[in-house]
Design goal:
The complex is a heterodimer.
Chain A (H helix, E strand, L loop, with lengths): L2 H12 L12 H23 L2 H28 L8 E3 L4 E3 L1 H21 L27 H9 L6 H14 L6 H19 L6 H33 L4 H9 L7 H6 L3 H19 L7 H8 L2 H26 L4 H23 L5 H21 L3 H27 E3 L2 E2 L9 H4 L1 H15 L5 H15 L3 H27 L8 E2 L4 H19 L2 H9 L6
Helix pairs in contact in A: 2-3, 2-6, 3-4, 4-6, 4-13, 4-16, 4-21, 6-7, 6-13, 7-8, 7-13, 8-9, 8-11, 8-12, 11-13, 12-13, 12-15, 13-15, 13-16, 14-15, 14-20, 15-16, 15-19, 15-20, 16-18, 16-19, 16-21, 16-22, 18-20, 18-21, 19-20, 19-21
Chain B lengths: L4 H18 L7 H24 L8 E11 L2 E9 L1 H24 L6 H20 L3 H19 L6 H32 L4 H7 L5 H18 L8 H4 L5 H10 L4 H8 L1 H5 L2 H24 L3 H21 L5 H28 L17 H15 L5 H15 L2 H30 L21 H7 L10 H22 L3 H10 L10 H25 L11 H7 L4 H49 L4 H24 L1
Antiparallel strand pairs in B: 1-2
Helix pairs in contact in B: 1-2, 1-4, 2-3, 2-4, 3-4, 3-10, 3-15, 3-20, 4-5, 5-6, 6-8, 8-11, 8-13, 10-15, 11-14, 13-14, 13-18, 13-23, 14-15, 14-17, 14-18, 15-16, 15-17, 15-20, 15-21, 16-18, 16-20, 17-18, 17-20, 18-22
Classes of the chains: A mainly alpha, B mainly alpha.
């Protein structure tokens, strides 16, 4: 058989098939994600090809440039009207480019940028064998306490892979709130979760605890992902599509072109309800809502503190973004089914987080429970199901992420011989020894507590107002009670810092490099600006509060 | 012309700012700055007065709108002035007497190292008082009202190193707060019911408002007046206020500030005219106070406190007249002006006596001073004759008119009020004669050291006191002090006649306050004769007691009434038992409730939260398997409830 004949066979066989249009990809509108993912891949190449000595600088530079460029791209898109009038669904229906997506992507990128600064801090730990070291293990693969670990420490290694991992995580988080079909949602979930599992495991000190945290996070995260995936399958079974728009049409019955298979399943509400509940559960796991919160304290405590700060801030932003889109775009027709359940979740989350935090003795666990309580407050805004609900949640997330990164950055400064001194008793009298650090931490605590003139107050006020106007008055009452309970343990730390006698062998406060100082300084500045003059940002969030469908 | 109104206030305000912020470098000239600016304000007042006289009676009212402080919807807080005949009268009195007292203070405060500050406070007082009488709405009036209260507080406590002065200042401030609450409530009621607090609209609105509302506002205004004008039951601070320097007593606590209550009531005439019940309460308060003050004045040996009792009593006359409605408004203000002259003169005279007597205030340590201080004696004497209502002098005209008006009220009320006023006149003659005789006549008791009183055996041993006793050298005061006294004496003598002959004052003020002759049950001549008779009786008794017999250098024990009057008719004891003790009991019970109930609930909640927290915390056991179970259970419940909600 001649080559021509073979060729004609191929073409002959191909002919009956309809022509496939090449997918049209809007690179410009996807540029933030593409920049970050691209930089992450370059970061992997850096690990492979750049000499070990230079990797730290190359990675930090690459990460900062990539995140800053992506942020600039987000600003450019927003300025170009893609958040409002030109909002549309891109990448063949897989990604939405609209107000909430851009607002959250901007927040995530800034949080990521500050996180890179805290990742890159190398002045806090004492110099080991002539090398400055950061928070990450010398060689993550070595067994803690083994000879190979000692050799790695001696050689001055460090886990510079943390930076590409961070970039991958940020990339996944950028997609997560803008995902417009269930498969993209799931992929994004895994893309940002897997790097986080790894990052949790690479602490330089207390490595066993760090690894335990990572394993727990991974196991439970995989468990939650399984639920999500099963839920996605059920929803696909129900609607015959993974696209948000199609599912929404099937849910509210406005779908046209009902084929026989769909006609069979679309009446089956059990599929829909169970599927929706399972997908929502997966997202609730990521935001750390009770009763899917159990991983939070252990992981927050065990992970390297810069990673904890990043995770606490950015994961929450991304996961709430995805939850908002799911509930507002896919399931608005199901509102009367999911609202009561979410009410219950919000109430137990607010109360549970606040109450259990009272008896915590470790500052990182305390902040973990505090983040659980905050997840409850944000859920109250989500339940509002109004445009104000969306914008208040956006504002709250932005405010909260800066406070969180700043607070965890302060935690890295207070140290004793064993590394960070996270036990609360060690913080007694810190205000006498290091008034500035204690004052900055007090600002963050007051913001967490929602005291006026801090961003915490403006955010809490916005979500509670939206919730009250959205018919969730009882939720607001519970929210205020929880806030009062929560205020107790925040204020207790302030009292401990300023009104207790310092312990004689208390911790020292390390003087950080300008990197951490920048992260903390930006955190304080944003906290105060959003607290004193929140109007502009509330309006910004208000403009960004409309989902494209 | 109306642009000058703001300058009236601005001049002394500038003085206060310069003197209080200027610091030590102004010490040498501070008193001159203060005096000149007070005089500037007086000159502006005279210019405005001359302009006003040139206009017809109905066109005399002027207004100046400076700016709107907080314009919020219907809440219009304007900084705006109104100058009518009533305000004009006050402006002249305040700036005129004020300027004289500034001059007097130059001499009186000469040796005080904080003289600059003193003049700063005096200027502050003038500015606030002018603001009070020039405001065209109740809110701005309230600003002035609080301003004079502040100045009064600062000046009573001017010698703050004396605990008694500090306490007296605090007392004045606290008692005044009660009255101030009345004014603020009145203003709030006005805004709630009329939607405004400008004089014009409020007073116009009285026509369509129910009497009950007007009575409520009227009583609140009366409460305010009681506080500021030291009327029963808020009178207790005035006697102690004499701890302040004497010029302060003359200006603030005799001539001007304490009459602010009278101004308030006369200014709010339309409210009171339409609320007879409130008016009746006003007359009762006035009548009670005029007796109360007079009785207290009879028993005091401290010359300033005797005069303070007299002030209280004379303001009682004014309040009484103001409560009579259109029959009395004009006479209330007329008596206010003449009283401003003679009482300021009397206080300045008392200050002059103290100045020459090593700051001794006990009249039992005076005696026979007329030889040593002739000018003080003559001016004080003319003030004395004026206040007791000696025919032809100021007090004769103004007080007599009030007594007539009280009778003209008509009915039983008129008889009672008229009799009280008449009785007050008798007591006035008595205590003033007593002051006069004890100070300027009789034996020179100051030549000998005080001996212990038989009534107070616990007093210090005599020998010790005698050893330290320094015989004073009474002398006439410097010109800066005597000239104001002479000027005020002229006012004391001639003002009343000038006002009354041809009813000048009545015609001047009538367009603002209105006037009504009432129905006098007895002729004016009868009342005048009766007044003369009681005057002679009162003065005669005093002469018998203090002119014919030697005055003991130490107070005898006295009758029950005397002892009560010395203690200000037990006002402080009453306040202590009823208010202080009551307040303490209330506080204690509240503290008890707070500790047992509120704290119990709070601590109980905290403890139960802590317990709950400890228990919930155990769920977090560190095992991934139990976390997974929790998640699984949560998911199961989530799904079950979602399905269940649909089923329901």
């Amino acid at each position: 058989m001649s080559a021509v004949a073979v060729h004609s066979l191929w073409t002959m066989a191909a002919d009956p098939i309809e022509k496939i249009d090449a997918p049209k990809i809007e690179y410009g509108q996807l540029s933030p994600t593409l920049i970050v993912i691209g930089a992450a891949i370059i970061g992997v190449l850096v690990e492979a090809f750049v000499p070990r000595k230079s990797r730290y600088y190359a990675q930090v530079f690459l990460s900062v440039v990539a995140l800053a460029a992506a942020f600039a791209a987000v600003i450019g898109l927003a300025a170009g009207g893609y958040g409002t009038t030109k909002a549309k669904i891109a990448a063949m229906g897989a990604i939405a480019v609209d107000g909430p997506a851009l607002f959250l992507q901007g927040t995530i990128l800034l949080a990521g940028l500050l996180a890179v600064f805290t990742f890159a801090e190398r002045r806090l730990d004492p110099v080991a064998h002539g090398n400055r070291v950061d928070s990450f293990a010398a060689q993550a693969a070595s067994v803690p306490g083994s000879d190979s670990e000692k050799a790695a420490v001696k050689a001055g290694f460090t886990t510079t892979e943390a930076y590409p991992l961070l970039l991958f995580a940020v990339g996944g988080m950028l997609i997560f709130p803008s995902a417009n079909d269930l498969l993209t949602l799931f992929i994004a979930l895994e893309v940002f979760s897997l790097p986080l599992y790894l990052l949790c495991a690479v602490a330089r000190r207390k490595r066993i605890m760090s690894q335990e945290a990572a394993v727990k996070y991974f196991l439970l995260g995989a468990f939650a992902s399984a639920f999500t995936l099963f839920g996605i399958a059920l929803l696909y079974g129900y609607a015959g599509s993974v696209s948000y728009a199609t599912i929404a049409q099937v849910v509210d019955g406005s779908i046209e072109n009902v084929n026989p298979a769909l006609a069979d399943t679309m009446g089956n509400d059990a599929l829909l309800l169970i599927g929706a509940a399972m997908v929502v559960m997966g997202l609730l796991f990521k935001v750390g809502a009770v009763p899917f919160h159990m991983w939070t304290p252990d992981v927050y405590q065990g992970a390297p503190t810069p990673v904890t700060g990043f995770m606490a801030a950015a994961t929450k932003v991304a996961a709430f973004g995805a939850l908002l889109r799911l509930l507002y775009v896919v399931l608005p027709g199901l509102r009367w089914d999911w609202r009561p359940v979410m009410w219950a979740v919000a109430i137990v989350t607010m109360l549970g987080g606040a109450i259990v935090a009272i008896t915590q003795t470790d500052i990182k666990r305390l902040l973990a429970y505090s983040s659980i309580a905050h997840a409850g407050f944000i859920l109250a805004g989500v339940i509002a199901t109004t445009a104000d609900g969306v914008s208040s949640v956006l504002f709250y997330l932005a405010a909260y992420s800066f406070v969180t990164i700043g607070a965890f950055a302060v935690v890295t400064l207070v140290r004793d011989a064993g590394g960070e001194a996270t036990h609360l008793s060690k913080w007694a009298g810190l205000g006498r020894r290091s008034p500035l650090v204690a004052a900055v931490f007090a600002v963050f605590l007051l913001a967490f507590a929602g005291i006026p003139l801090t961003s915490g107050f403006a955010g809490k006020f916005a979500v509670f107002k939206a919730a009250a106007e959205g018919g969730a008055g009882a939720l607001v009452v519970v929210g205020v009670i929880s806030s009062a309970i929560a205020a107790f343990f925040y204020i207790r730390v302030i009292v401990l810092m300023f009104f207790s006698e310092p312990k004689p062998e208390g911790p020292t406060v390390a003087v950080p490099s300008p990197l951490t100082m920048t992260a903390i300084g930006v955190g304080v500045a944003v906290t105060l600006v959003l607290g004193v003059a929140p109007q502009y940002f509330l309006e910004l969030a208000g403009q960004a509060g409309v989902f494209v469908r | 012309m109306e642009n000058l109104i703001a300058l009236l206030v601005a001049a002394p305000l500038l003085g206060a700012a310069v003197l209080l912020c200027g610091g030590r470098r102004l010490d040498a000239v501070g008193h001159w700055i203060g005096t000149v600016l007070a005089a500037v304000s007086f000159v502006i007042g005279v210019v405005l007065f001359a302009d006003m006289l040139g206009k017809g009676a109905e066109e005399r009212e002027m207004a100046q709108h400076l700016f709107s402080w907080v314009p919020v919807e219907s809440f219009q807080a304007d900084i705006a002035f109104q100058l009518d005949q009533l305000s004009m009268t006050f402006v002249l009195l305040i700036t005129g007497v004020g300027s004289l007292i500034h001059v007097y203070s130059i001499g009186y405060m000469e040796h005080d190292e904080r003289r600059r500050r003193f003049f700063g406070y005096l200027n502050l007082f003038l500015a606030a008082m002018l603001l009070l009488v020039l405001a065209d709405n109740y809110l701005l009036l309230y600003v002035g009202w609080e301003g004079v209260g502040l100045a009064s507080y600062l000046l009573i406590g001017f010698w703050q190193h004396k605990p008694s002065a500090a306490t007296a200042a605090k007392k004045a401030f606290l008692v005044n707060r009660v009255g101030d609450m009345g004014l603020s409530i009145a203003i709030m009621l006005m805004f709630a019911w009329f939607g405004t607090f400008a004089f014009g609209p409020v007073l116009e609105a009285t026509g369509e408002t129910s009497e009950g509302k007007l009575t409520a506002i009227g009583l609140m205004l009366l409460l305010a007046a009681c506080g500021k004008s030291a009327q029963v039951p808020l009178q207790s601070w005035l006697g102690d206020a004499m701890e302040g320097p004497t010029p302060v007593s003359a200006l603030i606590h005799a001539a001007t500030m304490v009459t602010a209550g009278v101004y308030l009531i006369v200014r709010s005439a339309d409210i009171f005219n339409a609320a007879p019940d409130a008016q009746l309460v006003v007359t009762v308060v006035g009548a009670v106070t005029l007796l109360f003050g007079a009785i207290v004045g009879c028993a005091k040996d401290d010359i300033k406190k005797a005069l303070a009792g007299s002030t209280m009593s004379q303001i009682g006359y004014m309040i009484l007249a103001a409560g009579l409605g259109p029959i009395g408004y004009v006479f209330a203000i007329m008596h206010l002006v003449t009283h401003g002259f003679f009482k300021a003169g009397l206080f300045l005279g008392a200050g002059s006596v103290m100045h020459g007597m090593n700051d001794e205030v006990d009249m039992r340590r005076y005696g026979g001073l007329r030889k040593y201080m002739p000018i003080t004696f003559v001016t004080f004497g003319l003030g004395y004759l004026a206040i007791i209502g000696f025919p032809g002098l100021s007090g004769f005209f103004s007080k007599d008119k009030i007594i007539e008006a009280a009778f003209a009220k008509g009915g039983t009320e008129g008889w009672i009020l008229g009799s009280v006023a008449l009785l007050g006149a008798a007591i006035t003659a008595y205590y003033m004669t007593r002051v006069m005789l004890m100070t300027f006549f009789g034996e020179e008791r100051w030549r000998h050291a005080p001996t212990p009183s038989p009534a107070e055996p616990s007093a210090e041993p005599a020998a010790e006191t005698r050893g330290e006793y320094e015989v004073p050298h009474p002398h006439e005061s410097p010109k800066s002090m005597t000239i104001p006294m002479i000027v005020l004496a002229f006012g004391s003598v001639f003002a009343g006649g000038f006002f009354s002959i041809g009813d000048r004052f009545m015609h001047w003020l009538e367009p603002v306050t209105g006037h009504d002759h009432g129905h006098a049950p007895v002729s004016a001549m009868t009342v005048t004769l009766a007044t003369m008779v009681v005057l002679v009786i009162g003065a005669g008794i005093a002469y018998v007691q203090y002119g014919r017999r030697p005055v003991p250098a130490l107070a005898p024990r006295g009758s029950l009434l005397t002892r009560a009057a010395r203690r200000d008719l037990l006002q402080d004891d009453f306040n202590h038992v009823v208010l202080v003790r009551g307040g303490e009991h209330l506080t204690r019970s509240l503290v008890y409730v707070d500790h047992s109930l509120v704290d119990g609930v709070v601590n109980g909640t905290a403890a139960s939260m802590g317990g709950l927290s400890g228990r919930l915390r155990k769920l977090q056991n560190g095992y991934a398997r139990s976390y997974a179970v929790s998640m699984f259970g949560g998911a199961a419940v989530l799904i079950a409830v979602t399905l269940l909600m649909r089923a329901v």
